[in-house]
């Protein structure tokens, strides 16, 4: 599942390809993808629209139009966007096709079909289910140290669990939660409310740094919208990970073996020495 830095790269790639293009027609073959719209109503609403920009809120991709609506997409597990010329074959699971005015097609494919796409009136965007509940964007001033201190002080959950809750702290999935806690030298199983103010500051810095670095470092392995797989964790990401998927390997700081514990189907990775408490 792509995490926020990868979605940020999808957004940038989409922006490069789509901004200024007009949608000529759409074709959707998986009705649940755009429910409650029917395929024909969806097409009626979109055809002729000019794409003015592409942005995101959390992992929701926002394709902005010159109408009063925004096309909101979420990739979930396996959703991918492709940008294909008119003579390229459609890949399997191509559930939505947007025909563009430059003879190219934007294709949404989703093998496991958990992805979603909705047309939301601009004025209702911040009230939309899923978006409404999200915590502040982690790289904006809204995600301040005092905000994080407040959130942490009120929670009896472990830090790892709290950091994965997108309504409290936005932008960390399993990978970057592990990496942020490692950078902050904080044990993932610590109860949030017991975190000292000084360490909360370290965590706040680590969250921002890890996301910023992931976005910067991974820019070498840009999302390729013209490749059928669109996105995969390439070498650039794996080089970046310091604890994630490194069970049994030596910590880069202290040499202790990285540990892993699985809980509720999710693995937590940490250094038992650097992250003792
Ligand atoms: Zn260590």
SSE map:
Blueprint: H1 4-18, E1 23-28, H2 31-34, H3 39-46, E2 51-57, E3 60-65, E4 69-74, E5 79-84, E6 94-100, E7 105-110, E8 116-121, H4 145-153, H5 159-164, H6 174-183, H7 197-217, H8 235-240, E9 259-263, E10 266-270
Antiparallel strand pairs: 1-6, 2-3, 3-4, 4-8, 5-7, 6-7, 9-10
Helix pairs in contact: 1-7, 4-7, 6-7
Explain what this protein looks like in three dimensions.
The chain has helices spanning 4-18, 31-34, 39-46, 145-153, 159-164, 174-183, 197-217, 235-240; strands spanning 23-28, 51-57, 60-65, 69-74, 79-84, 94-100, 105-110, 116-121, 259-263, 266-270. The strands form three sheets. Strands 1-6-7-5 form a four-stranded antiparallel β-sheet. A four-stranded antiparallel β-sheet has the order 2-3-4-8. With 277 residues, the protein is α+β, with helices and mostly antiparallel strands. The mean pLDDT is 91. A hairpin with a 2-residue loop joins strand 9 (259-263) and strand 10 (266-270). The chain starts with a helix and ends in a 7-residue tail after the last strand. The radius of gyration is 20 Å and the shape is elongated. The longest helix has 21 residues, at 197-217. The chain contains eight helices and ten strands.
């Amino acid at each position: 599942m792509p995490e926020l830095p990868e979605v940020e790269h999808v957004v940038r790639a989409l922006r490069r390809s789509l901004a200024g293009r007009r949608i000529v027609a759409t074709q959707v073959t998986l009705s649940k993808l755009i429910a409650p719209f029917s395929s024909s109503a969806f097409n009626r609403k979109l055809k002729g629209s000019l794409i003015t920009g592409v942005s995101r809120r959390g992992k929701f991709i926002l394709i902005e139009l010159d109408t009063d609506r925004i096309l909101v997409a979420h990739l979930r597990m396996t959703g991918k966007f492709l940008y294909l010329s008119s003579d390229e074959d459609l890949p399997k699971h191509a559930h939505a096709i947007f025909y563009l005015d430059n003879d190219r097609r934007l294709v949404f494919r989703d093998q496991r079909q958990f992805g979603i796409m909705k047309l939301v009136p601009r004025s209702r965007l911040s009230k939309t289910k899923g978006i409404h509940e999200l915590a502040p964007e982690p790289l904006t001033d809204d995600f301040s140290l005092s905000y994080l201190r407040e959130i942490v002080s009120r929670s009896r959950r472990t830090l790892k669990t709290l950091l994965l809750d997108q309504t409290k702290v936005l932008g960390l999935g399993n990978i970057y939660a592990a990496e942020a806690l490692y950078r902050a030298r904080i044990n993932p199983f610590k109860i949030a409310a017991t975190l000292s103010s000084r360490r909360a500051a370290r965590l706040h810095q680590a969250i921002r740094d890890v996301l910023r670095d992931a976005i910067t470092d991974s820019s070498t392995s840009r999302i390729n919208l013209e490749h059928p797989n669109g996105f995969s964790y390439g070498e650039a990401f794996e080089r970046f990970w310091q604890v994630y998927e490194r069970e049994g390997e030596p910590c880069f700081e202290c040499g202790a073996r990285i540990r892993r514990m699985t809980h509720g189907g999710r693995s937590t990775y940490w250094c038992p020495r650097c992250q003792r408490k």
